[in-house]
Each structure stands twice: as structure tokens, then as C-alpha cells.
Fold this protein.
Amino acid sequence: MTTPKTTPAGRPDISRVATDTEKLTVLTRLLAVYPCRAPSDFRLVRPAYMQALEGVGKWALFEAERQINQNALGHPFMPTPAELRREIDRVMEPLRERERRAAEEERRYRWEEDGKPRALPAPKGDPEAVANWRARRDAEKEEAAVKAASAHFDRALFADKEERMNRTAAESVSDFISRQDRRHSDALRRSLKAKAAVTPETEEEKR
């Protein structure tokens, strides 16, 4: 019998590694409550438990203890080193999955040109410059619309739909504007590269 996987509502500190004292504290409490399947001297099995607990976080260790006391293992005996480590890994799985989704989303939507100037506003006074700016802006809008319509939707990235629905209006608007800016910037860079590839003779013919 296993408990369902749930992601903690808050963001616990999972970076702090449990100390040997904290590991022994949890093991002592478990030994005081649960009988061992085969009676043995804890001094003999202690190295196996400490090896199984290598690198575990403090939060995961205590959370695993709490869930074991809530019958996560489905039996009334002292967990073996492997069972204890498996329970710790299980409580950590939702947090690792959330971090994976966040990293994947950041990779997909990262703007490689962050920190560089955005497109300039429409120039004033020069009719030809204004016309060129408007043509470039229209091309950006059209390409952004095509990208938005054909973008791949990965449902795995948006499994935390309920969490996203709790965002404030300001956060939603800021996120939308940021993504639109990235799409328009990509279209502008491609437009400028294409323009730079045009020979002077061809440009003169267009005029």
C-alpha cells in the first residue's frame, strides 16, 4: 500500500542535507516504535542505514518518517535501509518533477538576447523611414501570429494548471507581454539578417 504522490503546497527547503545526528534521531525514533522483522543488534546494521541515507535532505528525511508513521509502507515493521531510502526518494519525486518542468519551461521561453535594446519606436520626420518601420512592424506581427498558432503545446509543462490559475492579473499580463516581446524580437532579427543579405544593386532596383 502506498500513499498518493502529492506536491507540497509551499516550497520546502530541500537544499539542506541531513546531518548524521538528524539521521540517527529519526532511526532511533523508528526503532522505538517499530519491531524489526529479524531481531538484531542495531550496531551491526547501523552502517547499512547510514549508507542508505547518504546525501538525503533534512526535509525529505523527516517527511518520510511522518509518512511511514501514516502507514505509507503498509506493514508494521521497522523499514529496511532500502525501504527507508525508497520512501525518501518517493516524497522527493514531486519536487524534482516540478523543478524539471520549471527548467524545461525556462529553456523553451528564454530570450537569448535578454539585456539588449528592444526595437526602436517609429522614427519621426522622415517619411521613408516611417514607411520602412511600419512595414517591418507589420511583418513582425504577422510572423508572431503564425508562430503563436503553430506553437507546440506540451501538456507535461502545464500539469500544474491550478497553480497557474492562482497568479495575479499583473503576473499574467507581464508573462504574456514578455513572451510577445520575444516573438517580435526573433522576427525583427530575421528581418534584419535578410535585409543585410540584399545586394546594393537589388536595393537600388527596389527604389
